């Protein structure tokens, strides 16, 4: 016997859990499959911009963020060679707008997934989707958990499984041959860092880029991306150290700001690594399958907008699906939902992807960075302008609905 749902969500990260929470709260029967057991760490910059505060309020998580997250991030910076610059971080223009903060993914994802379960979603983890087939106006999904396999039937599928893994689902990317320019992500937490509180600097070094921010529990998160060819060169000189330590040594050598910030710091836990990353806008899924998060489109992490884009896109989709269901939920109208969601997604997030690509390609090229650093020294406000261009002050979820914080 198959389990039947109004919506099946594949992936329990910020995009999947947000979509599941909002749909379940609207009365939908929602199933959510997450292949990892939470809590779990993840390669991610961990920053949540102030544009998320209205959505976090709607989800009932604003107070938890205030209690657990790191200090308010008020300045954006640049660590490049011997240069250390900072400028004010822009925030949404309405009166009383707050500041962004950082929270480890082991905490954020667990909070979101628990809240989705409390809203009524049937959360299954660890449980992976191993097949998805359209049949008679519905989708049949083969799900596998440690206790065995099962079949799930749903009319709507939300694909929130990310972009790093290949697999049998129609929204998973095909494996491609290795390329020198492929990017790999690394991330670690540090204690006793001298990074100024409230500062989030961009780290610029040959072959890659990164960022640092004060996260929860007194930790500083350092995350970065580096090209495959540069990583291969660094790994040739490895003794017994990990690839993450080799990358960190490369960043320290390239950035005075990082050397100072981590001079007396102690790494907490192992390095995490992932990749290759696949920045870009993906194509739409089959009718009735809606990609969100990195499955829909992935920005270069250089702008620290990945979590924001994932959660806000899930909100856009849930709003469209709930309206479709309230007006009859016809099969013909479902394709219109997909078109309107794609249009809204591009309008909200395509500019961030384009600006992220431009900054990333600049940051990874010393020949491009060197002539622009003097200009940034004279006009550090250009850092604020760049942060605004990346979406740091652009609202997608504008305000808490009139009915209170629990509306879609």
Structure report:
The chain is an alpha/beta fold. The protein has a domain at 3-175 and 279-389: 3-Layer(bba) Sandwich (FAD/NAD(P)-binding domain), CATH 3.50.50.60. It has eleven helices and 18 strands. Strands 1, 2, 7, 8, 9, 10 and 17 form a seven-stranded mixed beta sheet that branches. Helix 1 runs parallel beside helix 4 (105-118), helix 1 (14-25) runs parallel beside helix 8 (306-326) and helix 8 (306-326) packs antiparallel against helix 9. The relative contact order is 0.19. Residues 400-407 have low confidence and may be disordered.
List keywords for this structure.
408 residues, alpha/beta, FAD/NAD(P)-binding domain, seven-stranded mixed β-sheet, disordered C terminus
CATH superfamily of the domain at 3-175 and 279-389: FAD/NAD(P)-binding domain
What pattern of helices and strands is seen along the backbone?
EHEEHHEEEHEEEEEEEEHHHEEEEHHHH
Mean pLDDT: 92
The outline comes out as globular
User: How many β strands by DSSP?
Assistant: 18
The low-confidence runs, each spanning 5 or more residues with pLDDT under 50, are 400-407
Structure classification: alpha/beta
Give the number of helices: 11
Distance between the termini: 32 Å
The top-level CATH class of the domain at 3-175 and 279-389 is Alpha Beta
- Which band does the percent of strand residues land in? 25-35%
